[in-house]
# Entry
Amino acid sequence: MSEGELFSDIESCLGDEHRFKDKVRDVVQDLEQCYRALEVVFQGMHRKKNKTSICSEGRIVLDDAKNKYKQLIDLLSDKQYYRYLHLWQGVTGKLSYASCLIVYLESNQLATRETVAEMLGIKANAENGFHLCLDDYLCGLLFLAGELSRWSVNCVTIGDTKEPLRIFEFVGKIDSGFRLLNLKNDFLRKRYDGLKYDMKRIEQVVYDLSIRGINK
Amino acid sequence: MAQDSDLQDVSANDVNELFGAFRKELDARYDLHEKVVKISRDVTIESKRLIFLLHRIDFTAEKLENSLQQAKEKHLFILEKLKKVAVLLKDVDTFQFVRAFSAGLQEFIEATAFMFFIEKCNEVNCENICSIILSMHQVTDFLSFSDETDSSKTVRLEFPVEEYLLGIADVTGEMMRLCINSSASSLGQKDLSKSLSFKLTAYVQALHNAFSIFVHIVDVSQGLRKHFDEKLRTMTANVKKCEDVCYTLRLRGHEMPHDILKATLMEATEK
# Structure
């Protein structure tokens, strides 16, 4: 056997993989584009834009993302999910956050993993194929807490003094939920460590409001 | 806070329940990960021991067969451990846990490749040295185990091709050591090109050639890319050391007694 023969299969295998990853990356890039569009939509809430219009605009972009996920699902065969997970994990966390935010704005509810998965057009459970990985969902919740803490400040600025109280309740629930988890030293843990600062910021806003007797 | 009644739907209990389920899921995954890491650590240690055992083998002695037998037993022992990993991960996608067993697997590939060489180096010459390089296919075969509960099934420990490449790259370091250590005995050979040192060098060169191409086409994350680049640098250094040994053997082999020559070679390669 010559050198060429021995390694030619590896060479072609590496080549195939490279091409495949490029295809996946193209779709992931589209997803990133969706997220950027969502970010622009969400900026409106800090400037007293109508919640309903933010949500409906957001949902339109999410539907677009749904199509992109469908492309991704079609690209991947059964056993390839974990092999390439790292390629779309980042953007999925962000889109999960976007879904949670929309649900919160619409109903003040905590979006469940099932709801988020449904909004993105993917499965909630690992058994059913391409799914919303738990880490991404949890990461999305932590992003949400960060965004809401910023919003609580801006709510006061634009004259809505009720919303910060709701945010306080809501993020408090997320916080108490996360306390139940045994996190490892990974990126989720790092994100979680930031949650206390978000909480503190919201507490400060609520304190400032109550000490002045606003909302009485 | 009268207006907050609409929040009641997500009560504290619901949150507890929701996150309780998440905890279970995370704990199960982390536990499995931890179990695999533990076995993988054993695999690493045992593989290193196998490599040392192989280095101790005296090629001239009649006990060669005996020592090889010992090495093979050790190899089987390591395979048993890897089988445990495969069984643990039987029902999940092994790619999810690659990072947990990657270190052990790479060390195992390195040890296996080294063993293959020592076992078969007498059967080949420098021209067809590639036939004794451990192939990806052979590693996959090693890592297919029969299922104990159902013998018709096989349990496979699947892994990405990068793991194979990184494992096989490491073997050049061991080859280089053996090349230097065996240089004195190589001198005793009538035909230098059939000596162990020359074969080892041919092997390392072949691997280096292949690897220097792979490094450029392999599609990996930033962190792994650095790792690959570093491996290639080490490999290049190893190739040069081996080549220096061959050079010295050829050029000065006739001039000095063997033990002095060996000392000179050691010195030259330590630089």
Notes: Chain A has seven helices and no strands. The interface with chain B takes residues 1-3, 5-7, 9-11, 13-15, 17-18, 21, 79, 81-83, 85-86, 107-110, 112, 134, 138, 162, 165-166, 169-170, 173-174, 176-178, 180-184, 215 of chain A (CB under 8 Å). Residues 134-216 of chain A form a domain with the Methane Monooxygenase Hydroxylase; Chain G, domain 1 fold (CATH 1.20.58.200).
